[in-house]
What does this fold into?
Amino acid sequence: MSFTKPKTTIEENDTVILYLTVQSLHAIDVVPFIKNKKDELVENVFQTNYGALKVKDLIGMKYGSRVTLTKGWAYVLQPTPELWTQTLPHRTQIIYTPDISMILFQLEIKPGSVVVESGTGSGSLSHSFLRAIKPLGHLHTFDFHEQRCDIARYEFKMHGLNDFVTVYHRDVCTQGFTDELDGKVDAVFLDLPAPHLAVPHAMKALKNSGGRFCSFSPCIEQVQRCCETLEHNGFVEIQTMEILQVEEYVKTKVINVLDLDFVKTKKPDEAEAKDLKTPREQKKYVTTQAPFTMPGHTGYLTFATIPPLFAR
Ligand SMILES: C[S@@+](CC[C@H](N)C(=O)[O-])C[C@H]1O[C@@H](n2cnc3c(N)ncnc32)[C@H](O)[C@@H]1O
It folds into this structure.
């Protein structure tokens, strides 16, 4: 599958990204037939604003090629964790790429890392963890919602990621992570309503030299409680940050060119000064401008470290 390695040709059961516009992308499972509401097997036809696509026609096509729809066309792309985050079916709130990039960087995730995550939710962050830890690492992901666990397992299997991930149906605040993981984990990530309750369990799971911790919380009260518990449990380097992505707009600006030589050599009298304000020459520049409004708060990221050789 192309989540695990690059591919040139689309095969049955691949997940592909149908790119219509920058704002309109869809993830499609390449299965020729699907069940309708009456539980009958029917041809899989995907509807878009540019018309319908018979999904079976994708089989054998090259990734990156243009596909004809009944009222237009689109591109079929290989899936990546970033495109999956943009297109996945939401079962919960998800973590988006600006936060994901900081999480991976701060948790020092690399090939071979052993990572614990809770909750699994819609698996948005999980896919980025998986790309970073393959081929030798492992993701242990926990959620107390059974159906979300089942769907996540199905999606990981469809994406060829089964060997690198284990999904646990478990309440991590009351039951913690499994005993087999004690002292073996490089990084713990929490996206929970009450992360402070899972902090002692994270402490148990993390390696006792330099293990990294992160919690994502929308509310500052959750952050405060989590920081207090982290400190109480012996974590150090406790740091909370918020990631705000600013998108600059490209635009053309017309700028008046002032006669600077004149200004430098002579102090202009009143009439000349007025005249100077009247532009003699104008130049056009392609430049950028910060947006007047921007997407606001998503959540706070709290990071912490277990000090080397911390005695539990
Ligand atoms: C916001 S979602 C996580 C989204 C995920 N980070 C993503 O990027 O797709 C939070 C998840 O935590 C799970 N959850 C909440 N409390 C939990 C607990 N005590 N133990 C395990 N899972 C829990 C919920 O069922 C939910 O699926």
Summary: Residues 15-79 form a domain with the Vcp-like ATPase; Chain A, domain 2 fold (CATH 3.10.330.20).
